Structures are given as structure tokens and as C-alpha cells.
Amino acid sequence: MTAITLIEDAASLNSQLGSLDLAGRLSLVAGLGGRVVFTTSLGIEDQVITAEIGNHRLPIEVATLQTGRLFPETLALIDETESQYDINIVRYEPEQADIDAYAEKYGLNGFYESVEARHACCGVRKLKPLARALSGASIWITGLRRGQSANRADTPFAEFDPERNLIKINPLADWDIDVIRAYVADNSVPVNPLHARGYPSIGCEPCTRAIKPGEPERAGRWWWENDEKRECGLHVHEESASAAQ
Fold it and tell me: Residue 121 annotated as binding?
């Protein structure tokens, strides 16, 4: 499909999805044809989507980026989630050669030293594995929500991703955290125990801390940087990520 066609399709989907519940949104997307991939970080939002996919047996591939630096609690939750919903979560890992090259240039934990080094680490451990996960996909489902940060306040239900030439679906865009928590409680969804310890947003262990009362949900990600719009690059276009540096 051409970019113009995908932009038009995304706009149409964005209008349709708003009036549906979560199951309806995912079912609609799953029925569009092509390869549909949901990438999960095992955060509370993503667990809600995984529960809907598993409970309704939707033909949506579930994948995760096993960066090599995840919390033990996150790794354990992958296995627990697969067992509870009888699904397979495909792990995409970084290439050892890329990790070695990064360490030689910046040091293993060089991401603390500069934004450039941090983006390079995210590139090796997240962006390149994501590219493999989405190779050949026509639709990418994420757990993005408008309430996660100011940078995500305008998150649509559907959008065209020009870098990956696919349609990106954010079925929880309009869900707030209280609705998420209620769904988890009502449906016995397994969640990362770190959430109860002050980690609303959980990424790699060296780059995530608990937040303080009153801080935004994603304040604990890359907390040593000053840019309030800091992201790893998964959900910002390349030019935006470069500008943030």
C-alpha cells in the first residue's frame, strides 16, 4: 500500500475505534487482514491488552523486546502471562555483536553519560529488535495512553507510522489509569509487582526508578535526563528523536 492509502486508512480507523469497547477495537483490527503484531513491555496497560487477546483468542501475534536488562519481575511475568492465557509471547533479543560494539564505544553502562549514548543503547536493545518483530507486519498494536505523559497527550486510536510503513493502533488511548486498575482487579490480570512499589512505567532495570508522589507516570524513566519529553525512540519519529537530543 502507498503512504497516502495508509494515512487514509488510519484516519478512518481512528474514527471507527473511538465508539467501540476494547474487545471491539481489537477484534476490528484483528479482522483487517495481514500480520497484526502487539508488542508488550508487560506493563499494566499491556497486560490488559494481552488479556483481551488471550481471552478472545484473537489472531494477533504478541511479542516483547527482551533487552537483556529487564527486571527479574518482568521476566517472571512473561512466563506467568503465557501460562494464564495459553499464548506464546515471542521474545526478540538484541544481537550480541551490537551489544559488544556499543560497550566498546560507550561502556556497558555508558547511557548514563550522554543522551547520545542512551539513544544508542535503546537503538541496540530496543529499536533493532523491534524492527525484526514488525518485519512484514501491516498493523502494530501498542499500549500507549494519553495519560502516561505530556508527550503522549494527543495519542490517537490509529495513526500512520511513516518509518515502518504500517498502521499503528493504540486501543487504550482514552483509558485512564483508574480504569486500567479496575479492569485488572475485576479480571484477575497478572501484573508486575513493581507497580505496587511505585513503578507505574517499567523498562530496563538500570534506566527505571520508582516515582515520587505527584510525579508523572513516566518520570521514573531515564530520570537523570532533563528533557521532559524523553523517549526511547519506539514511539517517536526519527526526526523528533533527533531533535530531542
Answer: yes
